[in-house]
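Tip: read the tokens left to right.
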């Protein structure tokens, strides 16, 4: 599978993304600000970067500008992650030379499809949207049989196993 860098300042969002990617067999590197993201790109040379727009030290727009200016990384696929969902935000992000833009909150299926599209476009067909709808996961967090549970339930199991507590108002949105 692919090596993917998650550049996101929110630790809960990083954990959620890490789980979604590792469940599907990807290797994950992490950065919590824009400057660290550039250092990690140099060190690990990921196949794809998931880049939050609103990070400290150097925002996502600054990071993508530096990536695209560097001949070694100019063609690296970079997918924006942001809660910006106003009219015109998608165009602004894509005009900034991002390769994709799934908005937050992250929808596991939409993210997998977007990664599949971007990696396929780059000639790397390692992520399959079919892996989302037919996930097989087992381990300490419990088991999810193929095609019977949603990704939300899977993530609740993983986070429950790690000791996270979900407020009732959040749980009620999915029940």
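Filled-in amino acids:
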């Amino acid at each position: 599978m692919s090596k993917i860098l998650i550049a996101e300042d929110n630790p809960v969002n990083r954990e959620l993304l890490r789980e979604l990617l590792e469940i599907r067999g990807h290797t994950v590197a992490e950065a919590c600000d824009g400057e660290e993201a550039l250092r990690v790109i140099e060190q690990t040379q990921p196949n794809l970067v998931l880049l939050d727009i609103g990070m400290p030290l150097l925002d996502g727009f600054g990071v993508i500008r530096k990536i695209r200016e560097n001949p070694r990384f100019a063609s690296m696929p970079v997918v924006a992650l942001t809660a910006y969902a106003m009219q015109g935000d998608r165009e602004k992000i894509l005009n900034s030379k991002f390769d994709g833009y799934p908005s937050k909150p992250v929808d596991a299926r939409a993210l997998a499809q977007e990664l599949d599209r971007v990696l396929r476009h780059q000639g790397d067909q390692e992520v399959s949207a079919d892996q989302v709808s037919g996930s097989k996961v087992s381990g300490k967090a419990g088991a999810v049989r193929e095609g019977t549970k949603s990704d939300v339930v899977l993530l609740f199991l993983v986070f429950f196993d790690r000791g996270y507590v979900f407020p009732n108002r959040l749980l009620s949105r999915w029940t």
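The chain has two domains: 3-133, 134-175. The chain is about 40% helix and 10% strand.
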